[in-house]
Amino acid sequence: MSLARPSGFAADLFTVARRALRSLPREPEFLIPALSIPMFFYAVNIGALQDVVEGTNPGFDFKAFQLPVAIVFAVTGVSRANVIVTDIQSGYLDKMLVTPVKRAALLLGMMVADFVLVFSLSFFVMIVGLIVGVRFESGLFGMLAFLLISAAWGLAFTGFPYTIALRTGNPAAVNSAFLIFFPFVFLTSSFVPLEAMTGWLAAVAVWNPVTYLFGGLRSLIFDGWNGAELLKGIAAVAGVGALTFSAAFKALAHRVASG
Amino acid sequence: MDSSIAISASGLVRTFGGNRAVDGIDLSIARGEIYGFLGPNGAGKSTAVRMLCTLLGPTGGSASVAGFDVATQAAEVRLRIGVALQEASLDEKQTGREVLALQGRMYGMRGPVLAKRIDEVISFIDIGAAIDDFVGTYSGGMKRRVDLATALLHEPEVLFLDEPTTGLDPASRAKVWEEVGRLNRDLGITIFLTTQYLEEADVLAGRVGIISAGKIVAEGTPAELKKSVGADLVIVEVADVPEALPERIRSIGGVGEVAVRGNEITVSAVNGAALVNDLVVLLNSAGRPAQLLTLRTPTLDDVFLQVTGEHLEVSESQGEAA
Questions:
Q1: Looking at beta carbons, which residues of chain A come within 8 Å of B134?
Q2: Residue A23 DSSP symbol
């Protein structure tokens, strides 16, 4: 008599997420760049532009303006997609696929781990921001909202590398997903507010969801609770998430199809 | 559906583009049986296993495992099978114990039941304290043993072992054979074993199916298959084989089949020992004295040679590379 029993979706999700979370601290080569790169850019951007910007705009807090940029740098493109590629190449994915585990849990479990990771990264960057003097008009709950929206963006973006990982099973292709990061975080209001932008960059930035993400995050720092800005930011994240998640789950269905 | 049948297949086909990797195989494997699926690399063994364990959908025909259709009731099949695929694939960032725990949870095992079962499988794979080391530090043999343990953890009704001993040293191979035999004997687990090692099929399998180019070309117990070749084989090497020589050998009383490969003549006979003298005299008279003469009982390789025209014997190094 077999000891196997059907387990529910939540149990499968927890099982897969636990595996992904457990391996995180065992991969310092993954965590160190994820923490150090945003800190580097935060320091460089402030060092290079703070005096210029604040000199021409008295009273403007450039460190606070740049904090969402540092956070988006920290959380965009961070995922466990490389683990899925390794699983495909080693045959471990097949080993999991011959078990009764729910197929969607194999991807969602990884995403749960991603959310924990990007939330932690956001928290770390926010603490650095607080240390250098950034203050939130929206208070403690605003800081929590700031972290949740940032982490949700990081999670939404994971759909890109997961789609590539599941479609190709190729680590080089997954690494190239990082290229998608550049237009998202540079063709937007990273350095100046949207209202101050002109020309083609302004035209592109209007269509870039990260512009509205920055708008929502900055509103929590500068304005307090600005419903319109927050809504636009959340909608931008949800829109990107809907697009990338549907692509990723379609890629998963294609990968696990036995046809 | 006959409940005494663990695995059945009817006209099972799998094509990849224009290539028919599995070309209409029929199987009927009883519960509690060890079935050896014997064939060289590329014969279609692994493709057949991947269909039976729901990783690949059949292009044609049908198959059922533990009473459930592999194409339409895959979830039911997965609950009842254990699988050790050809490559021992494990997560190298986890310890052996963590890998086993993860596997158990995927089969719905929890708490003390899971912990007890993990201890049981650890004891049989004989890996010692290394079970708490990262899999990435394991040798190939250790990975294979842990992989086998994951396949057995939930005590499946049907166990698929795809070349389970390829790459193992002789001692580890013997240990796996012993365990496979014990699982079948003590727990009644049906075992579908693919192998390219003749000895493995001979030692373990109650019945053997020989697969070549996607088709089952012979099937039976090892004894039946060997008997089909003849009771004894006399293999003789000569300088060269004139065209008329095989026919002259066939004229000797008691000779069954005569096969020629290069300068080697294989003669099957009910009583090989009685034939040797006449054969040596005939070869001398034909001006082709025997350079080397061997008298032995048939092996599964002889069966394979008879049905496919090729030898199956795989060297250890080839097996490890496969």
A1: 26
A2: H
